[in-house]
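Chapter summary example: a protein plus protoporphyrin IX containing FE.
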Amino acid sequence: MSDATTSIGAAAQNAAPPRVKGRLKAPWQVWRDAGGRVSALRIVALLFLIVPVVVAIYDFYTEGYGARPLNNVIHRTGYWALIFLMVSLAITPLRRIGRFAKLLDVRRMIGVGAFVYAAVHIALYVADQMFDLWKVASEIVLRLYLTIGFVALLGLTALAVTSTDRMVRRLGGQNWQRLHNIAYAIGLLALIHFFQQTKADVALPTFVAALFGWMLGYRLLIRFKKTRGEPPAWKLLALTVAIAALTFIVEAIGISFVFNVSPLRVLGTALDFDDLSMIRPGWLVLGAGLIVVVLDLVRQRFGPRRGGAPATRA
Ligand code: HEM
């Protein structure tokens, strides 16, 4: 059986009508798995999804939201929509490399979480514009970063409405999988939106973009691999080093362009470790990639055998 077929089988299996003690599981019982059992993994994912709400409430009572509270929450919700979208994309590499087949069970949940934060993000933007829908529409048409955000939101909406068990069954595993591959395009649009509205330090968007680049690279590795197994650790290492090098170079070119300085001078500052808060995104993505390589080596040694974990393309 091909990788793709196995993946579709897994998606369809996941979407089979779930039961709780012989009856259908209610769609809102998201803490139960496809078999209707209470799932610790799902509960952890749910808690993870409400962390930003808890942090926002804590920040409100400790330091307040400043002169423009609504704008503060628009930024928070946009940021978390992007992060959860990236986490949902990271599930596939983590599941495969870490041989954690069960992670697949929370991918849809985290993707829908990204949509919910994005929907609140746009709703707050509409509120910030005093519910003047004509103004909102014209702003979206006239400002490129809002147009891009809007297209990303449309894509997320399409993914969210097709994420119910019933829709997965209706579309069929293969169509569903094909549709949900647009999550990568949505991720790219959301990143551009993030970059465009970031006025000062672009280190954070650069880091998230580098992680996204790593995930795309991994996707290409598994698409074009010649054997059925996972890419070997050395390929993951090579991917990590290549993405980290690219991050240093692109960031140096970007900064040199904006501040009219030599890119080599910018590259030189990458070795400045005096202030750890200023550590360059290239180092961070190198660190994150190395952790994944170590995870691969450890799971190769101690995890389930390669054949044991379902080798899927999803
Ligand atoms: C119609 C759709 C959207 C509108 C109108 C919109 C609007 C905005 C606005 C007004 C800001 C703040 C800009 C500023 O203060 O200068 C912002 C920031 C942001 N938005 Fe959106 N957005 C949309 C969709 C999205 C989507 C779908 C995502 C992610 C999946 C997203 C992610 C972000 C991020 C990451 C930020 C920056 C947050 C930060 O500063 O940390 N936005 N957006």
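Key point: Residues 69-97 form the longest helix (29 residues).
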